Structures are given as structure tokens and as C-alpha cells.
């Protein structure tokens, strides 16, 4: 029987834990009554409000630079148009083409203008600006130092007597004149070659008599003395008849012209010989020089270098010079002294230089034919990117100073600065040249008008003035501003 005063073990454990629980509660109460520890906090204000992002994630505005560049290009064109008095907007709309460039950089291009059907507009009649092409290819093909030789051949003289014919062989010299020739043109020929020199050589050699004929030989070139497509409106006062042997532009006095240039040249040599006391037993005639080994050079005269002949061409706009140079280009490059061969060589050379000639037509060298067609891009490119561009520009007349520009553009920024070639036909006016812009860099340009009354100063002068003023201000550039087109 268990003793009733005995206390179970579990009860003793419980009794032992009661003081510990009470002590823990008192400690927790004391801890709860202590004040909390002091802490320091920093408050960050939110950023100011911004515009709500409304640009789509795929919008091009998230890449603003290309847009800015495209807009700047349009605004630059508009600024150029505004500076030119609206000239750009009239290009090709009324028979006017305009091209401005700095070398390869196109400032204003005429070949990009399309008609209402989306077709590139046809090139225009260039008038005497055609001479720029001939001059450029002549420089390249013949060389700046090329000279034109006029030669007298015969059997060797004996005792001061030539026992046979004397042949006057033409070498294509376009500015061969007698010392007493008075050039009636508005712009007389310059840098000429004097035929009297060969006659004086005979006098100096002691020749007193020629027992034969004086024979003019123009066979270096063909016998086309005039271009058919010129029509009746172009007279001998303008050009022709011309040949490889041409003296005094074929004039024979009293306003008349020789039908066969070589015959006229032979007549002039005979006249000069007799004026110096050399007796000519025969007469003057024209024929090719025979292939005869007994013939040798009796006398000769050479022209000034080609560059000086080109000065004459470009300053006086000499049509005969242009046509003879075109034939000489054909003779040199192909052995064919013809207008057609020369024109083909010019076209081929321009193509080799990378000069654009959309729908271009080259009929003659002078630009007198209304069948010629050139774009302003072609003309400006000749002064901008050809291998002879710098040399060619240096041969052009200066505005307000000389040549066909002596009385033009006086009192404008072009005076004394612009070098250019003019071109004029009825209802046609052209100007192609080079002038420094505001930054001192050259700007090459061409403007051609094919409109009613284009050759009237009242019509063409405003166009010229607008082009000159634009070049004087150039470069006109609106810089791209990407910030204008950035996302918002």
C-alpha cells in the first residue's frame, strides 16, 4: 500500500518551473517599458515630373539622326532656293537648266528633274558652250604644246629659182592670217599666225623666181566646208567656208568669201610673193601635194601653242577655230580629218572621263547647229572633273575684263572673279564657268536658257545675277539637329 504523503516526480518538476516562468515574465515586462533606440533616416524626393513618353517603341523617332539629316538636306535646298530668288524651282520648268557643283559634290543638279510623266527632261541647245567640250578634248588629245604647221614644199631651188610648183600645205591652223588683214568681227582673232613669215623665208633664201604654180593643199581634212544643219540663218560672216588650209578666215575682200579655202590661200601666197619681188611664172590653184620624194621643205611657219589658240577660241568664240579643232581631233585620234570623226572622239573621251551625257547630241564644234543637245550637268562637269579642268578654266575670259565677258557682270560679285564661256543664238543663252564661293573654294556651274527672247539681256541677266549671288554666298548649309526629332 502506497504512502499517501508521497508526492509524484512530475509534480515536483512543475513546481520547480513556476518561479522560472514568473521571473521571465517580469524581465520581459521591464524590457518592454524601456524607450526604443534612436535612429536617423534620409528622405529622397522623387524626380520632377516629365512629359509622358508617347513615342512608340518601333518609331523611327527613336533613331533621330537619319531623320535630322534628311530634313537638313531638304531645308538646305530650300535655303539655297530662297537665296537664289526661287531660281532652283524654275530649273527645267521653262526650258532652263542649271547645274552647280564643287568637283564631285552636286549642289544643284539638272538631270534629276523629271517631267510630269516621270521622265528625265531632254538636254538643251548649248550654243557656243559646245566649244568647251572641243577645247577640253583638244587639250587632252593634242597636248598643250601642240602647234599647227603651214609648210611650203618644192624641189630644191637652184640659183634662186624653183623649177616647179610650190605647194602650200595646210596643217589646220585656224588663225593663219596675212599681216595686212583687218578682222571685221566684233571680237577679232588674237594669237594669230602670220603667213608672211613663210614668204619672208623665201626672200631670205635668195629665191627670185618660181617656174611653176602656187598650189594650195587642204587635203589634211575632208571637203566639208560648212555644216548643213546650220541652215540659212548662219552665213559666212558667222563661220565657213573652212579647211585645213585657211587664210584670213577665207575672206577675199569687200565682204566676200572664197568658196574653196585652199584656192584663196594659194592666191594670198602668190600675192605676197609678187609683192616682195619674187616672180611667179605660173598661177594659183588648189590640189593635194603629190607623193614625190623630190619635194622638200622650202619654208614653214608654226602657230603659237595650242593653249594660246584655245585662248583665241574661248575669248572670241571663234566658230571657224572650233570647227577646225574638231576635225584635228578626228585626224589625230583616228586619222580622219572629219567633223563626224571628231565628234565621235569627243563623245568617247567624255565617256572615258565619266562625264554624263544623257541624250546628248554633238553635231559640230562651234555650237551653231540647233541640233546639238547638252545638259548643264555635262557642261559643268567638263570644268569640274576632267583631267584638264584646271587648265581649261585658266583659259576662259574673266567677267568685266576680257573677251566676250569684257562688258558683262560689271559691278557684281563676278567682276574680276568669274571665268566663263558664253553662248548665244536666237532664243538661246548659256553661261558655263567657275567662281569661288564665300569660303574661297571654287564652284563650277552651268546655266542654259532655251526660252523665247533668251538672248535678250532683259531675259537672261536676272538668271545670271541669281546664280552669281548664290555662288557668292555659298556654302549655304542647314546643319542636322537630331534633338528636334528625338523621342518625347
Task: Describe the protein in words.
- The protein has helices at residues 9-32, 64-83, 87-90, 130-142, 196-204, 261-275, 306-316, 319-334, 339-352, 376-384, 389-393, 457-473, and strands at residues 96-102, 105-108, 149-154, 161-162, 166-169, 176-177, 193-194, 209-210, 214-217, 279-280, 284-286, 296-302, 419-425, 428-436, 442-449.
- It has 488 residues and is α/β, with parallel strands linked by helices.
- The chain has 2 domains: 67-141 and 311-473, DD-peptidase/beta-lactamase superfamily (Beta-lactamase); 147-304, D-Ala-D-Ala carboxypeptidase C, peptidase S13 (D-tyrosyl-trna(Tyr) Deacylase, Chain: A, 3-Layer(bba) Sandwich), CATH 3.50.80.20.
- The strands form 4 sheets. Strands 2-1-15-14-13 form a 5-stranded antiparallel β-sheet, with helices on both faces. Strands 11-9-5-3-12 form a 5-stranded mixed β-sheet. A 3-stranded parallel β-sheet has the order 4-8-10, with helices on one face.
- It is elongated.
- The termini are far apart.
- The model is unreliable at 1-33 (pLDDT under 50).
